[in-house]
Write a structure and sequence with these properties.
Blueprint lengths: L10 H9 L6 H4 L5 H5 L4 E5 L5 H9 L4 E5 L2 H10 L4 E8 L3 E2 L1 H9 L2 E10 L3 E4 L10 E4 L1 H5 L2 H6 L4 E4 L3 H11 L4 E5 L1 H7 L2 E4 L9 E9 L11 E8 L5 H11 L3 E9 L7 E8 L5 H9 L3 E10 L7
Parallel strand pairs: 1-2, 1-3, 7-8, 7-9
Antiparallel strand pairs: 3-4, 3-11, 5-11, 6-9, 6-10, 12-14, 12-15, 13-14
Helix pairs in contact: 1-10
């Protein structure tokens, strides 16, 4: 038990401390056990990115004892879920500054999955390097393009540092630690620095502190649980090609008392100038879901429920 003066570590901090300096071998690259073993142990969750990524942190926030299965591409995350290699996936769906992750909307539509939960994560970017490095030695900075874009002010204040796009924030930390390059740094989370045994040279370097990402916990439709306290739905639909069809569909939400919190259009692949609309709505009861789906049907060529879940509380 920690002493009264010792800070209580969160589940993710315990996870990283236990694995600090660990080298990932082939088994650890996909650290989930067989189906039979997993049924008695922790939920296996696929994420896009390396251990230490923000998706990893969100997964641990959603399921404290999760077993993380890192994937390189988002398509691999959904394939792993659909094939049954993992029990769930955690994906970023929207950032308060960068906007929606369009690819993930497309993948939610394509696969037979449902959103079961959501959470919000405060995104804090840090300049990270190998231990013993001084900030004046850095001339190259690697990170995901979105992270680099969210730290423009810091990079402008350090013109010596040339930025390079990388596939993942935590992956950029992993790379510099493996290469032991004292002139390179990464922009990533505090958790990534802890996992790979790197050093934070400067914390909270993002331009805007109001930087939050919304994450979904996604499961196969057959396995998803509908919780009684669910008060939000995500769905998508396409409308008939006739005057007023979109207005008629949107009017149904208001008529049923559903508060629309988001609407976004995405092009239909292979059908130029046709669109699918993605909508989030606050609802008063899980019984509203079927009523909304039934009310939309006469006005839409397609309607698909993406999930019904409890809305994540706002972060202070």
């Amino acid at each position: 038990m920690p002493s009264e003066s010792s800070p209580v570590e969160s589940p993710i901090e315990l996870w990283y401390r236990a694995r600090k300096h660990t080298k990932l071998d082939n088994a650890q690259a996909h650290p989930y056990p067989s189906h039979q073993e997993a049924s008695d142990r922790h939920m296996r969750i696929a994420i896009q990115g390396e251990p230490g990524s923000f998706s990893h942190e969100a997964a641990m926030k959603l399921v404290e004892d999760a077993v993380i299965a890192p994937c390189t591409l988002s398509a691999e995350v959904f394939a792993s879920l659909s094939e049954g290699s993992v029990e769930a996936a955690v994906i970023p769906i929207e950032n308060s500054l960068a906007g929606s992750v369009s690819e993930h909307f497309d993948l939610l539509l394509k696969h037979d999955v449902l959103v079961e939960r959501e959470t919000l994560l405060r995104i804090r970017h840090n300049l990270i390097a190998i231990s013993g490095t001084h900030i004046g030695e850095i001339d190259r900075v690697f990170s995901h393009p979105v992270a680099l874009a969210q730290c423009k002010r810091f990079l402008a204040e350090h013109p010596r540092m040339e930025s390079y796009a990388f596939y993942d924030t935590a992956g950029s930390v992993k790379q510099l630690v493996e290469l032991r390059d004292r002139h390179a740094a990464a922009i990533a989370s505090k958790a990534a620095a802890a996992f790979y045994g790197a050093q934070i040279l400067q914390a909270d370097i993002e331009d805007n502190p109001e930087n939050y990402t919304r994450f979904f916990l996604v499961r196969r439709t057959a396995d998803a649980t509908l919780y009684p306290e669910s008060n939000k739905i995500s769905l998508c639909f396409s409308v008939e090609n006739r005057p007023g069809s979109l207005v008629a569909a949107l009017t149904e939400f208001a008529a049923l008392g559903a508060n629309m919190t988001k609407i976004e259009s995405r092009p239909v692949h292979g059908k130029p100038w046709e669109y699918i609309f993605y909508v989030d709505c606050q609802i008063s009861s899980v019984n509203d879901v079927e009523r909304i789906m039934a009310a939309l049907a006469p006005h839409c060529a397609m309607v698909k429920k993406l999930g019904c879940y409890q809305e994540a509380p706002e972060l202070s």
